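User: hey, got a sec? need OOP family OmpA-OmpF porin folded
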Amino acid sequence: MKQNRLMAAVTLGLFAAAGVAQAADGWYVAPSVGYYNNDKDRLTEEGSVFGALGIGKYFNNNAALEFAIDRTNRTNDWPASGSFQNMAATLTYRQFFGEGAFKPYVLVGGGASLHERDGFDRGWDFVAQAGAGLAYDFSERVRGRAEAFYRYDFDDESVPGADNFGDWVLALGVQVALGEIAPPPPPAAPPPPPPPPAEPHCSELDSDGDGVNNCDDRCPNTPAGTVVGPDGCELQVAIDLRGVEFDFDKATLRPESRQTLDEATEVLRQYPDIRVEVAGHTDSVGSDQYNQGLSERRAKAVFDYLVGNGIDSGRLNARGYGESSPIADNATREGRQRNRRVELVVQ
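Assistant: Yep! Here you go:
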């Protein structure tokens, strides 16, 4: 009885003095106390308490092997006096599960038990045990555990006419880490910053919005609305339609106008990206309303000629201006003739 009290005191003392980190090499001590539910064939009282002390080692966070010695003193039912003492030395494997503070586990092990019963031979017999338990991590150094296991004792000497006994065992204990404190694992390295977005290739950029990519643009930052050529520079396109004039009150092309329009067609073919306005004009003879319609018919005549010679209609915009934009004096015959015209305005 004094022994059991001593083991309990040791257990509580170690528990109270525990630190805060598991040993770096995995070694620990494990004092415990418990209760035997004795096999009735032992001819002892139904239950007895015991004390145990173990030393073990973790091989990883959840697997440990422990050597322990426990001792109990049973009270005999037969013979009526005397004592029956047992001391067991066992090697037990425990497998823990989970990563939280509470960890269920299973155990399996074996060893030898020394039987000392008054009036019988003193001897060692093999024991085997298996069971389960629940552990709780009070800190990184201290782990409490409660377990129940079945111990099978191959004792064939301590009770006349009876061999082999099975006892149920309940135990409460702690594991206290030994040695240096294992440093906490270093924090995970922060992920590398994402790579900067790839700079777009100059062929994908048009900084001045002139329709020519930056690779090919030899004249960057051209003003908005500037008509540019394939090199991004302002397009110097001269489309001279002088000579494309019309008879009085007519919207039909003169034969001599066709050569001028053919030259304009060739210029438009050389620069397929430019767009032009086909602008029709009249002299001042007649009403404004009539001259507006006449100028539109003249613009349409030139428009149709250019389209008929292969110029995409989407590049052309026919518009009449009536008598609003004279280039010569309408008071003279020659001035009025010059004002009856169509112009191509590059846009």
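Quick note: The chain has four helices and eleven strands. Let me know if you need anything else on OOP family OmpA-OmpF porin.
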